[in-house]
Design goal:
Number of domains of chain A: 1
Structural class of chain A: alpha+beta
Number of helices of chain A: 3
Strand order of the largest sheet of chain B: 2-1-4-3
Radius of gyration of chain B: 30 Å
Mean pLDDT of chain A: 91
Order of helices and strands of chain A: EEHHHEE
Distance between the termini of chain B: 38 Å
Mean pLDDT of chain B: 82
Structural class of chain B: alpha+beta
Strand content of chain A: 25-35%
Largest sheet of chain A: 4 strands, antiparallel
Radius of gyration of chain A: 17 Å
Low-confidence stretches of chain A: none
Strand order of the largest sheet of chain A: 2-1-4-3
Distance between the termini of chain A: 10 Å
Strand content of chain B: 15-25%
Largest interface: A-B, 23 and 25 residues
Number of helices of chain B: 5
Order of helices and strands of chain B: HHEEHHHEE
Number of strands of chain A: 4
Helix content of chain A: 40-55%
Oligomer: heterodimer
Helix content of chain B: 40-55%
């Protein structure tokens, strides 16, 4: 299952409300699809230049992307707090 | 309620058998029925790393949840690295005192390692810091 929603919460001060970002992945990917195509083409060229297999690299990257849901990173040192969650 | 149990209770109600006999028959029925197979233990899906630093200067809490599938995907990505790059990495590792031959490290080996992470639990307790690594 591809990621649906990425949540980013950042709080710089203990009293502050901080920043909350809810990123719907699929709409954002659709919006950025022209750039994404360019990025994939650039990655393929880079793979050819550095003698990587483009197919294997793309497949591996896709697998990484596919496996992202469920990842969660939470840091809190009292002053600063950061949460990144992929669902 | 199954048919045999119903018949026993019917016979008890009609007075054909005593309560003790009915109990014995029902017990015997229970022994005859095969035990349901044990449910397979669900495999863990996530690697969790939790760090709690309770020092007064800078109390810190870290909670990381990584899907094991993501670890496997990352491991498979290493197979993309061409052999000549691995040779260069080996040379650099050798220079820094780490004589590790990465060409001998196959993705299958690392995948086996990830598979065995299910059973891993690491607990480190310091005076102010606690580290807990486990799979769930």
């Amino acid at each position: 299952m591809i990621p649906q929603l990425v949540t980013v919460r950042y709080r710089g001060h203990p009293e502050g409300r901080g920043l909350r970002l809810y990123v719907p992945v699929v709409p954002v990917l659709l919006l950025l699809s022209p750039l994404l195509v360019l990025a994939v083409l650039g990655a393929v060229v880079a793979c050819v230049v550095f003698r990587f297999s483009p197919v294997d690299a793309l497949r591996g990257t896709w697998r990484l992307f596919w496996a992202l849901p469920g990842a969660r990173i939470e840091l809190d040192d009292g002053q600063t707090a950061l949460l990144i969650s992929v669902r | 309620m199954n048919e045999q149990r119903r018949q026993i209770l019917q016979m008890l109600a009609e007075g054909k058998i005593t309560a003790e006999e009915a109990e014995r028959l029902i017990d015997a029925l229970g022994q005859e029925q095969p035990e349901s197979p044990p449910r397979p233990k669900s495999r863990p899906k996530y690697l969790r790393v939790m760090v709690m630093d309770t020092s007064e200067a800078s109390p810190t809490r870290i909670n990381v949840q990584i899907p094991l599938q993501l670890l496997r995907a990352g491991v498979r990505l290493t197979s993309v690295i061409p052999p000549q790059v691995l040779t260069k990495i080996n040379a650099e590792l050798d220079k820094t005192g780490w004589p590790i031959d990465l060409t001998e490290l196959k993705p299958q080996h690392i995948e086996d390692l990830v598979d065995q992470l299910d059973e891993v639990t690491i607990d480190v307790d310091d005076a102010t810091t606690k580290l807990h690594v486990f799979c769930e």
